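Forwarding the complex inputs:
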Amino acid sequence: MIEYIIAKYNYWAYIVLMMIGFYAMIGKGNLIKKLLGMNVFQWAIILFYVSTSVKKGGATIPIIQNGHGPVTHAVDVAQYLNPLPHVLMLTAIVVGVSTTGVALSLAIMIYRKYKTLEEDEILQSEEYEALKPEE
Amino acid sequence: MIAEQFPALIIVFPLITALLINVVGWWWIRPCFYMSILALAVSFISSIGILNTVVTQGIIHYKLGGWDPPWGIEYVVDHLNAFILVIVSFIGLLICIYSKKGIEQEMPKKIPQFYSIYTLLVMGLLGMTVTGDAFNLYVLLEIASLASYALIAMGEDRAPLASFNYLIMGTIGACFYLLGVGYLYIVTGSLNMADLSELLPKLYHSKAVLVAFAFFLIGIGIKMAFFPLHVWLPDAYTHAPSSVSAFVAGTMTKVVAYVLMRVMFTIFRPYFSIELIPATTVLGWTAVAAMMYGCVLAIAQHDLKRMLSYILIAEVGYIVLGISMANRMGLTGAILHIMNDALMMACLFSVAGAIMFKIGNRDITNFRNQQLNKKMPFTMAAFTITALSVIGIPPTCGFFSKWYLVIGAIDAQQWVFAVALILSSLLSAIVFFKVIEKIYFKPREPVHPDSGGTHEDVVMDEAPISMLIPIYIMVGGILILGILSGKIISTVIQFAVPASF
Amino acid sequence: MIREVESIIIQTICRILIPFIQLFGLYVIAHGHGSPGGGFQGGCILAASFVLIVVAFGLQEAKRRFSEKLVNLFSSIGVFIYAWTGWMALLLGANFLDYGRLSKILPADPVHARYYGVFAVEVGVGITVMAIMVSLFIDLVTGGEHEEAPE
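Prediction (whole assembly, three chains):
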């Protein structure tokens, strides 16, 4: 039982982080806290992908050793980590940054209009009620 | 020579043009609209060229960067892809022409930004359709989603909060899709869709593949606004600018429904999705709930666009019902319904936008006093024809897709599905006739005795031509494509359905 | 409005450090194949140097050096460099982004032409990321109101 938890500790870490982020997105009322929860959620997925690129047998990071100057020796694949998940996650990090940028701009627009960032207060505020489509 | 490069041209032209609009928009505002039209016209012509090549020669494999498939990204276009490419680029071009007057009225200071982001949105959707690599699909899905969050937030006053909710839910959906792709990569080592469909059958018993499938379904369901996961859609589409609603309602949910078909039938073979795990049963019953929920809640709405958003939820239910029937007729009905629904929803939302442009509000209870049948006769005629298509009256195209869906339900011996389809047609008839009655019948207020016994003649104050022409092209499409349904099925859709059905 | 920090120590140190930070950012962009780095990372470091100018010297000084029109132009120029490299491959007869074909116009064999193609793409990505990060920072920090700031 114990080795079931300890041997796969990367999966447990990713699940815990993802659930913390998910709870923050749903359970918190402040818009910025929801955004932080979304960020934690995305980072959990990124860490999960990167952790799956590890190989047994002491593989090192995917940068060619003794690589300065013309490389004349063949590269031993088992010696280096799998670089593909790293590359995929580079793209996912950029997507996460863009989403955070757009969300923060939206939060600024909402703050300027309603003067608060708590979702309950916004839904009950007078400006929100006044903006119903005209009868 | 150039025909071989169409799959790349269809993406690159809008991308470069979107950024060029961003630069040019600082100095001159007038060219932005024309550059956008030019880019979308090039995409439309490329998509027709692709459809022609696929129908005459077979599946197109386009290797991006010259690298061979499992190592490089590949664009694969078969009949299903090519069909949806034509639909998306056609509606993109039409709504861009439609949007000129509306945007000048709603957001006069943000015209270059609007056209730039709109072109990026069309590019993202076209790229999602044409790619054959699972991770590339995630990147293009996020491009399209981010562009749509920004465009929806440019709308009226409640729009930023609606767009924020859409952002949070949409990101959860895309992250679940990413997790599904990650699980599949861990067990197989490949990201290419065709390669995955070769490698996965030996692994169908493993739990990782099962969880990956579940993640895919939930992620795609959130993006598609499929019944229990639809909560973001009414607010976001109601408060968006009218051109944005018209385009996104017609295309975004349909392209994600296409992604669902790819996941269920190309990456995971039909044997997995239908017999090994009862995914189609679950999807079928949830789709019935979606149809009922959408139609019933649409009856209760005052705002025209909100009513149309709930009808959209019901239409997504039709498409998923067709996918879940797991026989040839049902899937043909689903693919035909994608085309019909794109045209119908884009046309309905465009009419709502034209009404908003001319009158300034969209409250249905107010239509009676406005005498819209005299003020905007052509627009109301278009609305009526499209409403008849949603209900499913021949010879409009809506009838033919519902016909195939009902026959598919009877073939699969699911009598409840057939009854649900007919019942929801009845409910949508109630929804639309409520509006049509308010438009076409006389106001109830008595004539004032001191005005000489006559009421003033209402002057015809029709929507501008640049809005009417796209609406009428779409209405013409609804009528003509209905009559040509048989030919469309025999040339294109027949080969798009997987061969094992 | 962001006013400058009125401390001569910070201003002097920043004045000395910022060129070196930018040089390091360019180094990270160019050496993405040999050490951790690449287009996105180098672009972020270059953006960080401009953020340091804003923090130390105030928004007006930063806008004097890197105005908003220039930021917008740079963000598009990077993507144009990327798309143009791919487009050249199309014009020379191969598929999109097939850098090996660039060996017809560059004095190198196809393997090295791919290397130069990727390098050009990384430079484009770095320029775009730098411009977008600076634009994001200034928009978010001033709450979108920097257009109304007095000149």
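The beta strands of chain B are 60-63, 74-77.
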